[in-house]
């Protein structure tokens, strides 16, 4: 009967999309398409729908672009597990919630934590200025990113803090959990 409890929990959470496994380009494309369809059904406010779709797309693409940074040998697990990601998107009455999880090199945790803490420490005006500064100064990586993703997500979530956690897996690998909330009701 545990499966009934799990089903009820998923139903009560109003989960739009839930995935755990290895991400491929085709799967990312399909997930983004499914998300767009589900948001069309759920959200009447066009502005909220567009913001959340853009934020969720950025988060899903980030997972895919950074999966290859972890070496399976460092984890002592299969390459499938090292390329595994978690995505859970739910619609609550007052907000949308998106949570992702993926393995990252432990050597990157301090850099990511500093970036997220710096973003969480500023107000909306300072965030706009930071976005413009990074856009003007940053060189783009070989993955096409310039470090703007977290800033852009924070800008679109309307002042909600970016939540995160790092859990050590081995001395070389950590599990990075990232969560955002986007209000469904526009002020």
Explain what this protein looks like in three dimensions.
This protein has a domain at 2-105 and 160-183: Heat Shock Protein 90 (2-Layer Sandwich), CATH 3.30.565. The chain has eight helices and five strands, in the order αβααααββαααββ. It has helices at residues 2-13, 25-42, 46-66, 72-75, 79-82, 109-120, 124-137, 149-156, and strands spanning 15-22, 84-91, 95-105, 163-168, 173-183. The protein has a five-stranded antiparallel β-sheet. A hairpin with a 4-residue loop joins β4 and β5 (173-183).
What can be said about this structure in brief?
With 187 residues, the chain is an alpha+beta fold. Helix content is 50%, strand content 24%. The chain has a domain of 128 residues: 2-Layer Sandwich (Heat Shock Protein 90), CATH 3.30.565.
CATH class wording of the domain at 2-105 and 160-183: Alpha Beta
Element-by-element helix/strand order = HEHHHHEEHHHEE
Q: What structural class do helix, strand and pairing data support? A: alpha+beta
User: Helicity, in percent?
Assistant: 40-55%
Low-confidence stretches: none
Q: What is the fold-level CATH name, i.e. the topology of the domain at 2-105 and 160-183?
A: Heat Shock Protein 90
Q: Could you give the count of β-strands?
A: 5
Gyration radius (Cα, Å) is 17 Å
The strands making up the biggest β-sheet line up spatially as 1-2-3-5-4
The gross shape turns out to be globular
User: What's the total helix number?
Assistant: 8
Strand content: 15-25%
CATH architecture of the domain at 2-105 and 160-183: 2-Layer Sandwich
Coiled coil: 25-52
Keywords: Coiled coil
Pfam family, one: DUF6272
InterPro entries: DUF6272
């Amino acid at each position: 009967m545990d499966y009934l409890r799990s089903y009820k929990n998923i139903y009560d959470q109003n989960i739009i999309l839930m995935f755990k496994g290895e991400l491929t380009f085709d799967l990312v494309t399909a997930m983004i398409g499914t998300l767009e369809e589900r948001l069309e059904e759920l959200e009447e406010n066009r502005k909220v729908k567009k913001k959340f779709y853009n934020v969720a797309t950025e988060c899903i693409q980030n997972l895919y672009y950074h999966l290859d940074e972890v070496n399976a040998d460092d984890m002592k697990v299969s390459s499938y597990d090292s390329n595994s990601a978690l995505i859970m998107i739910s619609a609550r009455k007052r907000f949308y919630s998106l949570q992702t999880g993926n393995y990252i090199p432990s050597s990157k945790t301090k850099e990511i934590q500093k970036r997220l803490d710096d973003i969480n420490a500023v107000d909306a005006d300072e965030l706009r200025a930071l976005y413009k500064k990074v856009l003007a100064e940053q060189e783009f990586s070989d993955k096409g990113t310039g470090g703007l993703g977290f800033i852009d997500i924070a800008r679109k979530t309307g002042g909600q803090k970016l939540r995160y956690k790092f859990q050590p897996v081995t001395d070389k690998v950590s599990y990075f959990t990232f969560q955002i909330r986007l209000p469904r009701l526009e002020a």
